Amino acid sequence: MCGTMKAIVKKESAYGAAMMEMPIPEISDHEVLIQVKATSICGTDVHIYNWDDWAKGRVKAPYIFGHEFTGEVVKTGNQVSRAKVGDFVSAETHIVCNQCYMCLTGQQHLCSETKILGVDIDGCFAEYVKVPEQNVWHNPAQMPVELASIQEPLGNAVHTVLHTPVSGKSVAIFGCGPIGLMAIAVAKASGAVQVFAVDKNEYRLGLARKMGADHIVDIGKDDPVAMIKQLTRMEGADVMCEMSGHPVAINQALEACANGGKVNILSLPERPVTIDITNQIVFRGLTVQGITGRKMFETWRQVSELLRTNTIDVQPVVTHTLPFEDFEKGFELMRNGTCGKVVLIMPSYQRGTK
């Protein structure tokens, strides 16, 4: 498919981004071309937009960023057999080698050669995006595009929470950004007996209430370690899900965890974090687990079934839907923390076309 498309481009190694006309991607034999219907803004995109230390060390401008989306297949490569033109799809954003030890032993999410859509290669903040057929995930025809576009980050929440069995356990979510908010719903649906939502943003703590958190911990008013211990017979929470990336919060999560507990860390701190390994982890028998991406494709199946059966409702997390052209407003909402999930609707879908 020839021609150009509108895309949000990280034009230079500096703050911000620009709407530009870019060539429509050319696909190879094992790839599909997808016309994007909706794309959502992730915290990683905010790192890139802000051009913080993490972005400076990882991203190479200029390129198209963005990685959460849904759309319709409009072209397939010669060797594609599972996807066809007209399919309503989303996509796994970690593109893996299928050759390394991790891939060959069923742990593709830990592939040593992973390339992330919208981070290492051109992404989906565009009217069209290409992905390997392997990465395509088919959606139910009736799924709203707003929900279809946020399955990838919902997968992060599912992977983080369900890495540890939480049925009958107390769970604390540190950081109530969109993924943290979705993690609350996942933990409740999975049998957690107490879910703590920890943040300082009143707007997002309000959303945490809507998502079913049992205890709201405003770190601007309360000591999260003391409050969590007080409500868990002075033992601490069994499972910690660290979503904030803030050094103080990470240390608080470790302190508020019960002896022998699990600490699952999804967040991306901008700089190295100092922790007391001896006293916070070793002597207390904690297990600290880094979480990256989603299990391919176990997590996608879990996400799909949780949504299909209405076991969880993540609609309250989607607080803003904006035209694609208003991306700067969307990033400002994300940067200020005055939103849940921001979804950008593409021009063609705004016009009611496929």
CATH topology description of the largest domain: Quinone Oxidoreductase, Chain A, domain 1
Using the 3D structure, state the CATH architecture of the largest domain.
Alpha-Beta Complex
CATH class of the largest domain: Alpha Beta
Question: How many DSSP E strands?
Answer: 18
Count of spatially separate domains: 2
The main pleated sheet reads as: 7 strands, mixed
Rg over alpha carbons:
20 Å
Form type: globular
Report strand %. 25-35%
Mean pLDDT metric: 96
CATH homologous superfamily of the largest domain - what is it?
Medium-chain alcohol dehydrogenases, catalytic domain
Low-confidence stretches: none
Number of helical segments with 4 or more residues: 13
Measured distance between first and last alpha carbons: 16 Å
Structural class, from secondary structure content? alpha/beta
Q: Helicity, in percent? A: 25-40%
InterPro entries: ADH-like_C (IPR013149), ADH-like_N (IPR013154), ADH_Zn_CS (IPR002328), ER (IPR020843), GroES-like_sf (IPR011032), L-Threonine_3-DHase (IPR004627), NAD(P)-bd_dom_sf (IPR036291), Zn_alcohol_dh (IPR050129)
Keywords: Cytoplasm, Metal-binding, NAD, Oxidoreductase, Zinc
Protein name: L-threonine 3-dehydrogenase
Family: Belongs to the zinc-containing alcohol dehydrogenase family.
